[in-house]
Design goal:
Length: about 240
Amino acid sequence: MRIMKNKLFPVLFFFVFVPLFSEAQIYSGKITYERKTNVYKKFKQREVREWIDEAHKIKIDYFELCFNDSLTFFKPQESELREDYAWTTQKNTVYQNLKSNSRITIKAVWGEDVYLSDTLYTRKWKITDSKRNIGGYDCRKAIWEVNDSTRIYAWYTDAINTSTGPESFIGLPGAILGLATEDGGVVYFAKKIEIVKNNPSALKLNKKVKKYYTPAELKLQLQKDYGKYPWGKAMINSVFDHW
């Protein structure tokens, strides 16, 4: 009888406990991010401090990220409130298809939506042993070295299995709940995490677009139109920043 029990135990373990482990896999949900931008760090020009006083140097924006196992949709959160200094930050909308390696980004340039089509952004991450808790999820810190002088920090959780994050950031073994430049000039943190089932059709761009640019084409066009002006160069840098 004891032998019978020993033989049955692995079978019972498989049918009782494995489904519980499977249910812990999170591949669909919605994350709300708060982004804080230090405008003084973003714009180095002295004139900026003449336009924006010390009390308004931190600009706060909110975004939503909806995702399933293969599609992600990142967008600014809608608000009817009047927004001060809207021009100081970029609000991108990003659709990504993790299976087809494709990305569509909508950037606002002088109040007009411009559509870019490209492949997924590839970044080389260095995963560290540093950990922190964000929104009730244990996260591990990863570092992306943009260049010799710029680094981006990301905190991701493997409790959410889809490789996703704010803006175009992907490539880690889980969802990015925190993202920041090394100097703290731009910081994203998840403020609300919801486990919901997303309809795939809601994660796709469902409208006809007349013109798609590649990032290189748009940058070349903007440099041609505005590159000779100091403010134009600052605008182009803002449109094509690390995000």
